[in-house]
Write a structure and sequence with these properties.
Elements (H helix, E strand, L loop, with lengths): L2 E8 L1 H14 L3 E9 L2 E8 L1 H18 L1 E9 L3 H63 E3 L5 E3 L13 H5 L3 H11 L5 H5 L3 H15 L1
Antiparallel strand pairs: 1-3, 1-4, 2-3, 5-6
Helix pairs in contact: 1-2, 5-7
Length: 214
Amino acid sequence: MNAVGLIEVIGYVAAIEACDACVKSASVNILSIDKVGAGIVTLTIVGDVGAVKSAIEAGEVAANKVGVLRATHVIPRIHKEVADNLLKKEERATQKYNKVSEIPIKENMKIEENKDTNTETLEKDVKIEENTNIETLEEDIKVEENENGNIETLEEVKPVRDGVTNNRNLLNMNVKELKNLAREYNSSLTNKELNSLKKEDLVDLVDKLIREDK
């Protein structure tokens, strides 16, 4: 930082116009645009001495076109302590601006996290609902209500018809197998009729149905 140029105007529009003219006319950098009060705005630029002088002249002309120019000044070979204070002031202003800018970003991140959490919860609820419906459907398929109002589990009908050749084979079967075999030979038999029979009666019934089928 070799030199500092200052332009003081009335009105923010005039300050922006002067700022634009300065950076377009010479190789300078804008250090700050400060609102002093009562409509007074001060523009501070930095750069080489020659560039700053040229930029200030262009800024004067531009400011007078759209507003009121109060004063201009160029400080060549500015003291290091003054330059450091100006830079620190600008750094503090930049840090304050960055902190303010970070607040809505963090809030947006929290909102996005909540959306993701709600989405995951909704997906879990849907999966649980689907599993519940599937399990309920499977249970409904596995049970049927007989004529007496009792619920009886339906079992897969085993292919016991093949291999039954005599009464001895029938005696080796259990009651459920005998019922299933009776249904194979006579599908009109009801659960009520079969449940009322003992094993011996079922053996006789199946044996009779087998002989009739032959």
